[in-house]
Amino acid sequence: MMALTACSGGGQTPASQAAAGSTQAAAADSQAEAPADQKEEPAAGEPKYGGQLRVTLNNDPASMDPLLEDSEPGQIPAAHIFETALCNNIAGEICPQVCTFEEKDNQVILKVREGVTFHDGSPCEIADVEASANRWLNNVKMARTYVGDLMESMKVEGDSLVFTFKDPAPLATTMMSGWDRGLYVMPKELCEKYPDSKIADADLIGTGPYKFVEHLADRYIKMEKYQDYKPLESDETGMAETRHGYVDTLYFYSAPDINARISGVQTDEYDIAFGVPDNMRATLEADPNLDIEIKDLSIYCGLVFNYEKGQCADVNLRNAILACLDMDSLMLAAQGSADLYYLNPTVVSTKSKWFCEESLGKYNAPDIEKAKDYLSKSSYDGSPLVFITTKDNAYMYKTALALADMVKPAGITIDIQVYDNATLKDYRMDPDKFDMFSSGLSEKVDPTQIAFFEDGWAGFYKSEKKDELMAKMNAESDFNKRYEYWEEMCKVLYEDLPIITFGERRVVEVKRKTVHNTFDTVQKFYWNIWVD
Q1: For residues 443, 445, 451 and 453, what is the CA-based torsion angle, rounded to 10 degrees?
Q2: pLDDT in the model for residue 34
Q3: CA torsion sign, 323 to 327 to 329 to 335?
Q4: What's the Cα-to-Cα distance from 225 to each of 15, 94, 132, 515, rounded to whole Å?
Q5: Average pLDDT over the chain, rounded to whole?
Q6: pLDDT reported for residue 464
Q7: Start-end of H helices in 337-478
Q8: Cα–Cα separations (whole angstroms), residue 120 to 109, 111, 124, 226, 243
Q9: Is the dihedral of CA 462, 465, 466, 470 positive or negative?
Q10: CA 441 to CA 99: how far, in whole Å?
């Protein structure tokens, strides 16, 4: 049996996985949070307990159900209430969280860490993990594809939940550990009450460092530190780092207007905000009360086509649009400054081990004559193509406007339709509502987790080549072989062209100088932050 300690190598080679260790039990036994009412004032620069932290969300979430919300306004607060069975460090390796784990042969074995409790004081037990796993498998399609469909059985054996697979399932623990709709653990009763519907605010009970207090729609979400939280003491990084609830109260304010969001930090209404417009940077940098930092959050600015229906179901029309696009100009429109983006033809970070530059020579190669040639081979009838977007994310609206201008010389007309973010999310699931929509896809631990690869996701991308390569990646544990399949997938993406990536955004964070130790991951989390 291989006992995977602190972390395992996720997408690493079997040798590196074996080297990941045998000290998980020791890590699980070392769990002690410093008390919130520290009597000695900490030294300068040292963590401090107490106070409140006021952060911002781009929109008010419909719910904080970690399985049924697929965008940041719901997922960020949810991840402070609920925790996944497993998690990832910055390198993408699989680490314990609510559960310790073992892998042997074709099995994954989960055990609840000693002392983990829910916010109502009840102990977290293996029956809760089993119920949570069933809810996850029933509601998250990628969980079914990469875990459920490969399982021979899932059953409780003593204090363990044992997943037994028909064949090797190298991505099973990766899917369980995902911040984006991973295996979030919640009470069995909650899973039974909400088998396939969103959890009501009043029932938000998890194991996380913060517990839900109230949600005033379009104003704020309030959380309080969970005093009985049992962190996993660890020397790991990112989401696997030891989680401390330093502040007593955590507020998530709904702030859809970007100028109000940023100005609110200046006026001490908020403590942290993201997305500083380039024209505000100099003013903020001159403010002695503020800190400014550019963060690489691995967000990919682009569009998704309606692959199923309408004029953009024609690959020649999709290629004609791509052949019109100057990506530098699009990203400058989105970001306002050349230091706030990377040109990137794919949907993984330029710094990722998965980065691949393959685009069949089509990325950032504007050629109006080539676009016209593609157009002549297409079924495009000259009528406006419906491009749905939102001003809730300014970069989306700005790039939609810029793209509409770029395709005009080729004879393509765009009808830009602007909606709030919630409506955009609804409309993009209706093939009668759009020809293309603005997207802001985000980094995943493994590229197979990227949303548009999922059958039935917005845009409705279907491809036998895609399915074949995804199946090969799912069945293979050796990174080098998996990367070869990913390179082939990148070629297929530029053959099929279900999406166009304009580039990779960098995001400017502004915070009060009284705020310390903000995250260095692509996920936004606010435990481990303290305030003066």
Answers
A1: 120
A2: 44
A3: positive
A4: 40, 26, 23, 17
A5: 91
A6: 95
A7: 368-377, 394-407, 421-427, 464-475
A8: 26, 21, 10, 10, 19
A9: positive
A10: 29
Separation between Cα atoms, residue 101 and residue 95, nearest integer Å: 8
Helix axes 394-407, 315-322, angle to 10 degrees: 100
What is the rounded CA–CA span in Å between residue 327 and residue 134? 43
CA separation (Å) from 240 to 9, 16, 179, 306, 504? 13, 18, 11, 37, 25
Residue 215 DSSP SS3: strand
Tokens read off for 269: 């209404």
DSSP 42: P
Residue with tokens 């100057």: 326
Q: What confidence tier does 6 reach under pLDDT thresholds 50, 70, 90?
A: low
Query: Quick check: 9 pLDDT over 80?
Result: no
Amino acid at 388: I
Task: Return all residues near 119 (Cβ < 8 A) that are at least 6 apart.
Answer: 81, 205, 206, 207, 211, 212, 226
Residue 50 Rama label (left phi>0; alpha psi -120 to 50; beta): left
DSSP 381: -
For residue 84, give the H/E element and its range.
strand 83-84
Q: How confident is the model at residue 392 (pLDDT cuts 50, 70, 90)?
A: confident
